[in-house]
Design a protein that fits this description.
Elements lengths: L1 H14 L3 H18 L2 H12 L3 H12 L5 H10 L3 H16 L7 H19 L1 H8 L5 H30 L8 H15 L14 H31 L1 H7 L4 H29 L1 H19 L7 H12 L2 H12 L4 H29 L2 H13 L13
Helix pairs in contact: 2-6, 2-7, 2-9, 2-10, 3-13, 4-7, 4-17, 5-17, 6-7, 6-10, 8-9, 9-13, 9-16, 11-16, 11-17, 11-18, 12-13, 13-14, 13-15, 13-16, 14-15, 14-16, 14-18, 16-17, 17-18
Amino acid sequence: MLESQTLSVTAESKRRFHTDQVLTVAGAHLVHDVFSSFLAPLLPLLIEKLGFSLALAGSLSFFQRIPSVVNPFIGIFADRVDLRPLIILAPGVTAVAMSLLGVAPSYAVLALLLLAAGLSSAALHVPGPVLVAQVSGDRVGKGMSFWMTGGELARTLGPLFVVGAVSLLTLEGSWPMMAVGVAASVVIYARIKDVAIRPPSQSHGSLRQTWRAMRRVLLPIGGIVLLRAGMQAALTNFLPIYMTARGQSFESGGATLALLQLAGAGGAFATGTLSDRLGRRRILLASMSTAPLCMLVFVNVGGWLLVPLLVLVGLTFISSTPVVMAIVQEHAREHPATANGLYMGISFVISSVSPTLLGWLADVTSLQTAFACAALLALAAVPLIYFLPGKH
């Protein structure tokens, strides 16, 4: 009788949404991404200081993202051992690397700092959603909404934080910001060191086995990521430059990026939860068809209309990510971290190259043309939604 009650309690715990634990991991995501979002708002000042082209500016994002090639291997590692130390250390390591960008004396040093931050980011973004899925019970979409909201709020706060710090301390004097991230790692350790997690998998699967099990999910997702990568690069890497080219100040460019990310946080928080009730593909269809159309209008208007259009783009473009992540976790079985590593590897490798290509296109045409082309490609991703499997 006692054993039956114990099994019932365990099953109920697995189905329950553990809000405090989800918020802790989402908080680690928030703090980490505050610092990882420093590059875009700092680009105008770094270009002025070191004198490189828009194509080279875009390639800086490549160095920050190229460590994502190890994401599948981090996933294998996280399926076999306790994944919490990666989540604990990442905010502090990234804070140190990104806070030193302002004192970098050359493009090469910038690249090395961004490589370090990229490795730290990979160490967080592969196991983080897996831990969230474990403590979200049968509401994985809601859990992914919390996870993504942490990241999008960070990209709202990050530009404001770094612009404020640079305005007060100068570009070269803003390195003490790193103390915030290091302190956050200490706090996160205290909060999640006792969190009960699912034991590591006893079946040591390979990347090939996981790919075979997940390819009907990952192939259409990979196509969606590829076609939307240009629009992501335009919004996250070049929006401050685009706004300053249209006559806005450095501070206004950073504020515009913060507004976009704030709208994205709202969209991300809503869509994962809604997809638990209305269906993943239905929510994806709505968000992925609306965002590119709003973007096309955005690049062809001016004045006060820019603000509501930017809000709509943020609400709809960023909101698709928690839904996609929920789909991956629902269809991953014995090796969820490896599956997430494959997804994150595909996503980050593609997004590593796209800013450089978009920067090159902007150099040979204009930023406005590059933004419009990126929106058209993103619209072409909509039919791929119908190739995604239904809820597992």
